[in-house]
Amino acid sequence: MSRSLSFLLLLLAPLCASAAAVDKPYRTAGDCDGFPAVELTTADGLCVGLVAQGLGHARGVAVIDSDVFVVDMVAWESRKGRLLKLSNGGRHAPEVVLHDLNQPNAVVRGPGRTLYVGITGQVLQIDPYAADPARSARVIVDGLPTTGRHPVPALAVGADGALFVNVGSATDNCHPAGGRLPDPKAPCPETQENPPRGSVLRFPSRTTPWHAGDQPPYARGLRNSMAMALLPDGKLAVAVNSRDGINHADPKLSDAELPHDLLVVLQPGGDYGWPYCYDQRIPSPEYPGFDCASRLAPDMLLPAHAAPLGMLLYRGDRLPGLDGRLIVGYHGYRLTGHRIVAVNLDKDQRPAGTPNELVTGWEQRDGVHPQGSPVGLVEMADGSVLIAEDHSGVLLRLARKKGR
After folding, report:
1. How far apart are CA 343 and CA 325, in angstroms?
2. Whole-structure pTM value
């Protein structure tokens, strides 16, 4: 095993009773396409079923055939993260494929029957079907940032097999330690790092590992692109988590309403303005004289603090009215969050119109369900959509109601 993998003391093991989980966080009643139905408000013709619980701090989710893979971060700053496998569409008890992972956040299908797993500092490729999955692990990307507010990578795979990796910002809006404001006349230091914070990187497929600084940014000026989806034309759409506390820099601005989170179809080499600009190219209060007209505008403004952490392009026909639309999960705890929405794409594959709500009514209801916290989303071969929830450690399934 390589030196860069020496920290991975990974063994195949059964699911242990010490997994962090909320005991029975959802009350179920009735059936949702073969799974116990949970009491949530859904768009017409849809329902939500409970697939599995007790999955720890469940973040990303991926599918190979009928096997479901979920990464359990366990906790922030934990090096005890796990990769879990739930066979038969989640109907079988989870097994631990890998453990002792450093803050695993993302998992996507790689070439063949392999997986890419995004952990703090690295992206790994593993064969979950190997006799010893730990020995199959190899580093695909090394040297990703490990510090600051947003060290965990999000991942997507391009049509040509290239790997896209999010590099989140180290700070809220380039604020130095101690709550001071940045120097408005100087470049934000973290945007000068290699790789720059607040960027998306692209790594073509090859047999040797990449260092994160080997490639120029595919796009930059994006505070934290935690939700990614490949569009039919091969372009990458990202949903960006914007800053908090804008009122601290300018009390006349409302933290509840500004800035909006963003939905962007990336232009290669594009700069979208963070931390100097927000919303539709408005100068940030820390950088009042910045020329935001020189930066690219987002395609759509999402609600402020919705915190989109998962997104997919729906390609099936089982969920009525969703074919060819983006499905986006809002993780946020504020009123704009804890829901799942659908976004139309126009003839040019650009976001258009107003997002439609698919799953709502996810506020905390004692004895019924916790507040929704969707992260990973993935479409199954049967057209249903799996939803990993981190705060409650469950896997849910958005499906068509029986008879619809």
Report:
1. 6
2. 0.93
